[in-house]
Design a protein that fits this description.
The chain contains 15 helices and 52 strands. It is of the alpha+beta class. The strands form 13 sheets. Strands 8, 9, 10, 13, 16, 18, 19, 20, 21 and 24 form a ten-stranded mixed sheet that branches. Strands 26-33-32-28-30 form a five-stranded mixed sheet, with no helix packed on it. A hairpin with a 2-residue loop joins strand 47 and strand 48. Helix 2 crosses helix 3, helix 2 crosses helix 10 and helix 8 packs parallel to helix 12.
Length: 847
């Protein structure tokens, strides 16, 4: 595994070799981690020539030669020729890589949704990799299956009722003639238990060209089974499509999307007949989450998830379901987002969970890769309890806008509370989460694609988003903002006959200033039966005074576009605006959601001090202005105890990032007596543009303890530009002096050195702990002796352990320590805990 496997020269690349590359890559083998895996990193490296997906979008002749929507022919001569050119360029890259970084090895190849390879190499050699001409190195992002809250309701409310609720049963027909036959839904997750009764193959037969992958885990129902093991794990089941220890989530998700019709579920909830949304569809099992974690199941890294997306496209899947997520990073730096965008360009519908973070983060809590613009991003609802039978938004369901890219998300809503579905070993359970809402939409997309084989991905999305039912609050009965429901809870009867398609499916002006005026075009196309003129109006849910949204005409005829104008007066109030552009023809109503925020940033009025580079700095909020009292997005503090009313004085430090880095951040090291200071990181001059959740003072990495308030803020995967690091005073707090540490691009853990391997009894054991980047986080220190955790002291970079009670002889010492960056990593910089050191040594205690 340590060598670099070379591509065959382009002149020898036949079709069989090309399809083998699509199926896994010439050098992708096995699941065991290579020696010293903790010193290795895996990154995606792309080349300038566009992948096949982009080439199809930009070249009509190539697109015509390769095939129609949802039925691309990768064996067509034009496709084979183009893929050969990509393989030749990748072969040249490998040759350069072998000369420049001999220790590197190529793991995966990409040519459909990305053009490049994934490379495993020593962390110390990343700079040499980045120096290769014509190569773009993508940061690795770690994703996890979105955590599901087990439902507390005594009875299930779904899969015996939700197919009817969303109109799926009406599309099936009495003989199930259009219940998803022939459609293929890829579940990219932690691995499906294909033996579950909900996936009985009775009545199914393999379509031509299947099964694919590891056929020991396939059936005529689950027709593809693949695993994409990460090089960061040596777990024995990593390369199996189903993990008998950790796989769980995917089985529940797959049952919702395409569990067999009228299956009898048994267990603690009683006997209930259930059906998936597209019960006659096939399933593809793409296990891209393969890395075990202590408390959070299986994780997966972006090179593997991107490869799973690519493979699902190559395998002929029609829909991709991603019920996983992570804190959003800049989408242009997220290889998974780019792969999803290009999967959509190849006619595969990507459906992604919005996230479960609203309770803690409020607006601005949508995850990545739900930020992929062309994906259908799904919020979660429950069946009505407001007395009218209306759908209610789930309290946990994440809200737009996307916190970093400020997009209009989610796109639609689907049932996601109290969802009864399959779990491994023939069991059943009721779970909550946008993870459960998402396969409702994936199954819905499969039904529509079977019934309308010529619809594009954008048209499927439009049909679902524009025809939804309103979703309401749990109290008061008001419809929730579009940033929580998108176009509403899906209604398949209307989506099956949408009459018109709109592009885009949602309108976002983002952050706008007073005096702004701008018009966006809304293209309306006939979807069958919608040719007559439609009246156009605007239904405002909420808007600050002085901001108006108006159509440029009273009617629109399909085949034309209509302008939608936003005008903001120079005296407009600040605030969020949500609502719908409404198209109506008689009793037919179609809605296009919109969002924007009127802002008048005050942070730019504050003087700022420039940070020249990493180091320890002094600050003082006393005597400074108190212009800014709130920051967003997200709008809440993530965890309880993070102050959100910052109406006291603030001090601003500015930092200009000249090139992409993995991270930067600050930690408050101390402050004068009774002084309170709460840091934030925003784009320069704008308190409404936090760098996302990592810009809030909370320890959010789930692997280093319970999320909690912590005076550390950071930016993960930031783009070059100017940023403000703001130290603000909570309401009622005392301003004054403080000290902080600033770092840039710290992806390595602290160093630990045992001062002496032999000490006399009563003499302390001392270990030196140093970190030149983010600095040692004292709260992360954990010390054990002979397998038991023990007390210690830490001062000025030295950990000391008492030996007064130790018997003479050899003793095993283990010390775990992180730097401050680790509190911000979440799972965004793979592998998990890159800024944590576990040091082990043996010490002899002499009499």
């Amino acid at each position: 595994m340590s060598g670099l496997r070379r591509l065959v020269s382009a002149s020898l690349l036949g079709l069989a070799v090309m399809l083998a590359l699509l199926a896994g890559g010439a050098s992708a083998r096995g699941g065991a981690a290579p020696p010293h895996a903790s010193d290795l990193v895996e990154v995606v490296v792309t080349l300038p020539q566009p992948p096949l997906a982009q080439a199809l979008r930009d070249d009509r002749a190539l697109a015509a030669a390769v095939g129609r929507p949802h039925a691309l022919d990768l064996r067509a001569p034009a496709a084979v020729s183009y893929l050969r050119r990509l393989a030749s360029a990748q072969g040249a890259l490998q040759s350069r890589l072998a000369r420049s970084v001999p220790q590197a090895r190529v793991r995966w190849h990409y040519s459909l949704t990305l053009n490049g390879v994934s490379v495993v190499l020593p962390r110390s050699q990343l700079s040499r990799l980045r120096a290769l001409p014509g190569a773009t190195v993508w940061p690795t992002v770690t994703y996890h299956a979105l955590p599901d809250a087990r439902a507390s309701a005594p009875a299930a409310s779904a899969l015996n009722r939700t197919p009817t609720l969303i109109g799926a049963t009406a599309l099936w027909g009495p003989d199930l003639a259009t219940a998803g036959q022939g459609m293929k839904i890829a579940i990219i997750d932690d691995g499906i238990d294909q033996t579950h009764p909900f996936f009985s193959p009775a009545g199914f037969s393999y379509p031509a060209g299947y099964p694919k992958g590891n056929t020991a885990y396939t059936t005529p129902k689950v027709i593809v089974a693949r695993a994409f093991p990460s090089p960061s794990t040596s777990w024995k089941y990593a390369d199996r499509p189903f993990d008998p220890v950790y796989s769980e989530h995917a089985t529940h998700v797959a049952g919702i999307a395409a569990g067999d019709h009228d299956t009898l579920s048994t267990g603690a909830r009683g006997k209930v007949r259930v059906s998936g949304i597209a019960p006659r569809a096939y399933l593809g099992n793409y296990k891209a989450l393969t890395v075990p974690t202590k408390d959070y199941g299986l994780d997966g890294n972006s090179p593997e998830i991107a490869k799973a997306i690519e493979q699902a496209v190559a395998d002929g899947m029609n829909v991709i379901n991603l019920s996983l997520g992570e804190v959003e990073i800049e989408p242009s730096r997220d290889a998974v987002v780019q792969a999803l965008q290009n999967a959509a360009a190849m006619g595969v519908v990507p459906v992604v969970a919005a996230g479960n973070e609203f309770d803690g983060s409020g607006r601005g809590s949508v995850d990545s890769p739900a930020s992929a613009p062309d994906a259908i991003t799904v919020a979660a609802s429950s069946e009505g309890g407001n007395g009218a039978g209306d759908d209610e938004i789930a309290s946990f369901s994440s809200s737009g806008p996307t916190p970093v890219s400020l997009q209009m998300k989610p796109d639609v809503t689907a049932p996601g509370e109290n969802i009864l579905s399959s779990i491994p070993r023939a069991a059943w359970d009721v779970w909550d989460g946008t993870s459960m809402a998402t396969p409702h939409v994936a199954g819905a997309a499969a039904l529509l694609m079977q019934r309308h084989p010529l619809w594009t991905v954008a048209q499927v999305k439009s049909a679902l988003a524009s025809t939804g039912d309103p979703v309401y609050t749990a109290t008061g009965g008001a419809e929730v903002p579009t940033t929580r429901e998108g176009g509403g809870r899906i209604d398949l009867v209307r989506a099956d006959a949408p009459l018109v398609f709109t592009a885009p499916t949602g309108l976002s002006w983002g952050l706008v200033r007073r005096g702004f005026a701008g018009t966006k075009q809304l293209l309306v196309a006939d979807a069958g039966g919608g040719l007559a003129p439609w009246s156009v109006s605007v239904a405002v849910q909420a808007a600050p005074s002085g901001a108006t949204v108006t159509p440029t005409a009273a009617t629109v005829v399909p085949g034309a576009s209509i302008g939608v104008t936003l005008a903001v007066s120079r005296t407009a109030a600040e605030g969020e605006a949500t609502g719908f552009v409404v198209l109506q023809r008689g009793s037919d109503v179609r809605r296009v959601p919109f969002w924007f925020r009127v802002e008048a940033p005050k942070l730019a009025l504050d003087a700022h001090t420039t940070l020249a580079g990493p180091g320890v700095y002094q600050g003082d909020t006393a005597g400074k202005p108190a212009r800014v009292s709130a920051y967003r997005y997200p709008e809440r503090g993530i965890v309880s105890g993070v102050p959100t009313d910052l109406s006291g004085p603030e001090q601003v430090f500015r930092f200009t990032l000249r090139k992409p880095v993995a991270n930067f951040g600050v930690a408050v090291l101390g402050h004068a007596k009774n002084v309170r200071v709460s840091p934030r990181i925003v784009h320069a001059g704008d308190e409404n543009r936090l760098v996302g959740p990592t810009g809030l003072p909370a320890a959010i990495n789930p692997y280093v303890g319970v999320p909690r308030p912590y005076p550390v803020v950071g930016a993960v995967m930031p783009l070059p530009g100017a940023y403000d690091i703001v130290f603000d005073t909570p309401a009622g707090g005392k301003p004054g002096r403080f000290r902080f540490r600033f770092w840039v691009n710290d992806t390595t853990p602290p160093t630990v050195t045992l001062q002496r391997a032999s000490v006399r009894a009563g003499e302390p054991i001392r270990l030196s702990v140093r970190d030149a980047g983010a600095g040692v986080d004292p709260q992360s220190l954990v010390v054990s002796r002979d397998g038991k955790q023990v007390p210690f002291t830490y001062a000025r970079g030295t950990v000391s352990l008492d030996t007064a009670t130790l018997t003479p002889g050899r003793h095993r010492i283990a010390l775990t320590v992180s730097d401050y960056q680790e509190a911000k990593n979440m799972e965004d910089v793979g592998p998990v805990l890159p800024n944590t050191r576990v040091f082990r040594a043996t010490v002899t205690v002499r009499p």
